[in-house]
């Protein structure tokens, strides 16, 4: 075991997979010699050379289009989009090409690859360095969507994503890259991460805290706000079951529905805007599958339906006080 | 000669077939030349037959290659069997030349149970993995950004494989054209970008796609070779592509080939060009039809005769008739195929949706 932050865990996963499988490579803007603007690919250029740690021209559509071609030919690219906010020039390649290649070719061609993109707010980056665009990709048949919340999961999920036969969009919550919030301050990670082989299966949620009264489903950076909120309301006797989805799609529906059948109350927390956000899908699923168990209207604690702001970002994101409020209201209903 | 003047580069496009129907030093085996011509005839006959099937309501759509057969077959014939060909949507003749059976093509036209893409794509959206032929996508130009990745992957694996990617001049306005050429230039990818400049992108003329006189000249800015070729001269197309293929083999990187040709027919069966172009423009191109031009060359070399034409045409017509009859009789793909191949394995939500669709079908 070794203490790592999420960036180091991502780096460790990439290095191990590149050592294991010569077809695995990383590519993107600044990922080669420099090691990535967040340092996630640092050292890979020295170990694997410029043909497996590839600095590309500055073009997201080109990174993804080229990666699709490489994957179709049999390589396993892990393409980095520097910020999730910049993924949109590649949207056509992801949605119309990558996601549909297996289906449209009758299974003759596939393009298994991973798209890594730092996402989410909390770094005072304004709306072009803070967005959470996961819903667009969850909505697209043919893609898997993953978002870890901790170093150990980042490593295990990334390795599983690289080995997966389907294309995976892997969002990394950059606010908790180097540490997690403790009493409102980002504190360096002190979590042990297994060294060497470590996989976390796609499609399995993690139960972070057991509780009888409310089920709270969340993912990414908001996991930490949610756990803190659950800790605070526990002092009032409100026992919250916290589920970290980890794989957003295909979601671990059994974990969600099983928990809601026990608690009868459901709260979803995510940073992305509310309307047509992933919470809408989760609430619908739970309503369809556990309707007669519900004791209160499901609640969504999300980013507002505005562009992501800069100065007031802590008012935009569903931070602990908002989650506490939603838990109390849901429990009291 | 073809009516190309307004689109020519200063040095003029590469031409091999002369006005007297002779051509010097053609390094293609006679059997291969005959096969190329036969495939062009097959494509022409198919176009005619498929348009009629669409008019009769028996298929929903066809997008043809009338007038562009030399550009399509000449380029496909110049590639080696291990090479990859990634199509736009008008190059069924290239797939047939590579060995994709006529039956498989027609199975896609009818979207039946044997359609290699399992009825999931509209007509003329085929895939031919077994012949290293790609998968047709409708969004214009997306394949241009992917081809350098395939080519670069082949290079990194040490395979002597080049990638030929097709598109029309309309696609050169897309960002993916810039992206593909730029990446191929930077990565020195063994990639051949083949632009069928057929004059029209549905109703918009080539002059409205670019203020540049030629497409070929754009290669210069990407640091790749650029060649303009008479696209109705099948021998010139073959030579241009073969030379580009040699550059790939020598590690000299990509080539952009602009084949000057003309879309004699409508964009597709959903289009009527009478609304936007004059017959006077089309007429000289009919006179420059690549099929009789190639046939005259073969005839003067004694490689083709009226009797061959008659016999092969009859063969083709009967092959097409038989294949259509078989393809049309086959039923649709099974319901479960709707839910397969979205992912490698069917996840819980698609399993649920499959059961729902199955119940609805069983309940009638």
Topology:
The complex is a heterodimer of chains A (333) and B (364).
Chain A: E1 2-3, H1 6-20, E2 24-28, H2 44-48, E3 53-55, H3 60-73, E4 76-80, H4 91-98, H5 101-104, E5 114-119, H6 134-138, E6 144-146, H7 151-163, E7 168-173, E8 179-182, E9 185-188, E10 192-193, E11 206-209, E12 214-218, H8 222-234, E13 240-244, E14 247-249, H9 253-263, E15 266-273, H10 278-290, E16 299-303, H11 313-316, H12 320-332
Parallel strand pairs in A: 2-3, 2-4, 4-5, 5-7, 6-7, 12-13, 12-15, 15-16
Antiparallel strand pairs in A: 1-10, 6-14, 8-9, 11-13
Helix pairs in contact in A: 1-7, 3-4, 8-12, 9-10
Chain B: H1 30-55, H2 69-78, E1 84-86, H3 92-98, H4 102-110, E2 127-128, E3 133-135, H5 142-157, E4 163-168, H6 175-187, E5 191-197, E6 200-201, E7 204-205, H7 219-222, E8 225-230, H8 234-249, E9 255-260, H9 279-287, H10 290-300, H11 306-329, H12 348-362
Parallel strand pairs in B: 1-4, 4-5, 5-9, 8-9
Antiparallel strand pairs in B: 2-3, 6-7
Can you walk through the features of this model?
- Chain A has two domains: 2-193, Rossmann fold (3-Layer(aba) Sandwich), CATH 3.40.50; 206-332, Rossmann fold (3-Layer(aba) Sandwich), CATH 3.40.50.
- Chain A is 35% helix and 21% strand.
- Chain A has twelve helices and 16 strands.
- Chain A has helices at 6-20, 44-48, 60-73, 91-98, 101-104, 134-138, 151-163, 222-234, 253-263, 278-290, 313-316, 320-332; strands at 2-3, 24-28, 53-55, 76-80, 114-119, 144-146, 168-173, 179-182, 185-188, 192-193, 206-209, 214-218, 240-244, 247-249, 266-273, 299-303.
- In chain A, the strands form four sheets. In chain A, strands 3-2-4-5-7-6-14 form a seven-stranded mixed sheet, with helices on both faces.
- In chain A, helix 1 (6-20) packs parallel to helix 7, helix 8 (222-234) crosses helix 12 and helix 9 crosses helix 10.
- The radius of gyration of chain A is 19 Å and the shape is globular.
- With 364 residues, chain B is of the alpha/beta class.
- Chain B has two domains: 5-333, Thiamin diphosphate (ThDP)-binding fold, Pyr/PP domains (Rossmann fold, 3-Layer(aba) Sandwich); 335-364, no CATH class.
- Chain B contains twelve helices and nine strands.
- Chain B has helices at residues 30-55, 69-78, 92-98, 102-110, 142-157, 175-187, 219-222, 234-249, 279-287, 290-300, 306-329, 348-362; strands at 84-86, 127-128, 133-135, 163-168, 191-197, 200-201, 204-205, 225-230, 255-260.
- A five-stranded parallel sheet of chain B has the order 1-4-5-9-8. In chain B, strands 2-3 form a two-stranded antiparallel ribbon.
- In chain B, a hairpin with a 4-residue loop joins strand 2 (127-128) and strand 3 (133-135).
- In chain B, helix 1 (30-55) packs across helix 2 and helix 1 (30-55) runs antiparallel to helix 10 (290-300).
- The mean pLDDT of chain B is 96.
């Amino acid at each position: 075991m070794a203490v790592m932050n999420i960036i180091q865990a991502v780096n460790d996963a990439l290095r191990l997979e590149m050592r294991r499988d010569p077809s695995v490579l990383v590519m993107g803007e600044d990922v080669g010699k420099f090691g990535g603007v967040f340092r996630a690919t640092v050292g890979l250029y020295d170990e694997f050379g410029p043909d497996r740690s590839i600095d590309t021209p500055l073009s997201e559509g080109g990174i993804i289009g080229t990666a699709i071609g490489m994957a179709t030919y049999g390589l396993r690219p892990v393409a980095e989009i520097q910020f999730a906010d910049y993924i949109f020039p590649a949207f056509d390649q992801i949605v119309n090409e990558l996601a549909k290649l297996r289906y449209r070719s009758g299974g003759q061609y596939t393009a298994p690859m991973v798209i890594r993109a730092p996402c989410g707010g909390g770094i005072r980056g304004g709306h072009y360095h803070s967005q959470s665009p996961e819903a667009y990709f969850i909505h697209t048949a043919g893609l898997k969507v993953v978002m870890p919340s901790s170093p150990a999961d980042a490593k295990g999920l990334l390795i599983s994503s690289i080995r997966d036969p389907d294309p995976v969009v892997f969002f990394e919550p950059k606010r908790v890259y180097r540490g997690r919030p403790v009493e409102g301050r980002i504190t360096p990670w002190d979590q042990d991460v297994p060294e060497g082989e470590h996989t976390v299966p796609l499609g399995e949620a993690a139960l972070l805290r057991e509780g009888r009264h409310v089920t709270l489903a969340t993912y990414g950076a908001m996991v930490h706000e949610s756990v803190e909120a659950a800790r605070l309301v526990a002092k009032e006797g409100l026992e919250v079951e916290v589920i970290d989805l980890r794989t957003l799609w295909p979601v671990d529906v059994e974990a969600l529905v099983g928990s809601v059948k026990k608690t009868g109350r459901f709260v979803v927390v995510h940073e992305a805007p509310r309307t047509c956000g992933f919470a809408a899908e989760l609430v619908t699923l739970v309503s369809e599958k556990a309707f007669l168990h519900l004791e209160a209207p499901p609640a969504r604690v999300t980013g507002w339906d505005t562009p992501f702001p800069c100065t007031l970002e802590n008012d935009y994101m569903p931070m602990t006080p908002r989650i506490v409020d939603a838990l109390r209201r849901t429990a009291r209903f | 000669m073809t009516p190309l003047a307004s689109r020519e580069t200063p040095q003029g496009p590469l031409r091999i077939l002369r006005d007297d129907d002779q051509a010097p030093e053609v390094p293609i085996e006679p059997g291969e030349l005959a096969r190329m011509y036969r495939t062009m005839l097959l494509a022409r006959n198919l176009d005619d037959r498929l348009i009629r099937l669409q008019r009769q309501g028996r298929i929903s759509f066809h997008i043809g290659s009338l007038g562009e057969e030399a550009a399509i077959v000449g380029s496909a014939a110049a590639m080696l069997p291990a090479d990859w060909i990634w199509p736009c949507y008008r190059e069924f003749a290239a797939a047939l030349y590579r060995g994709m059976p006529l039956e498989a093509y027609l199975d896609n036209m009818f979207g039946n149970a044997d359609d290699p893409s399992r009825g999931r794509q509209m007509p003329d959206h085929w895939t031919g993995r077994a012949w290293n032929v790609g998968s047709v996508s409708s969004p214009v130009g997306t394949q241009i950004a992917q081809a350098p990745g395939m080519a670069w992957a082949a290079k990194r694996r040490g395979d002597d494989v080049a990638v030929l990617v097709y598109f029309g001049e309309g696609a050169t306005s897309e960002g993916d054209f810039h992206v593909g050429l730029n990446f191929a230039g930077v990565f020195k990818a063994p990639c051949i970008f083949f632009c069928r400049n057929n004059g029209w992108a549905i109703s918009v003329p080539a002059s409205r796609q670019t203020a540049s006189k030629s497409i070929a000249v754009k290669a210069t800015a990407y640091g790749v070779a650029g060649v303009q070729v008479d696209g109705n001269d099948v021998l010139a197309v073959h030579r241009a592509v073969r030379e580009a293929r040699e550059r790939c083999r020598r590690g000299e990187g990509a080539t952009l080939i602009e084949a000057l040709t003309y879309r004699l027919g409508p964009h597709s069966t959903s289009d009527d060009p009478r609304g936007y172009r004059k017959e006077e423009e089309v007429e000289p191109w009919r006179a420059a039809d690549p099929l009789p031009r190639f046939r005259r060359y073969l005839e003067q070399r004694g490689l083709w005769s009226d009797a061959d034409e008659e016999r092969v045409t009859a063969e083709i017509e009967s092959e097409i008739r038989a294949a259509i009859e078989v393809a049309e009789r086959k039923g649709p793909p099974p319901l479960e195929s709707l839910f397969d191949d979205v992912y490698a394995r069917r996840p819980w939500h698609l399993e649920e949706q499959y059961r729902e669709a199955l119940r609805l079908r069983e309940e009638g």
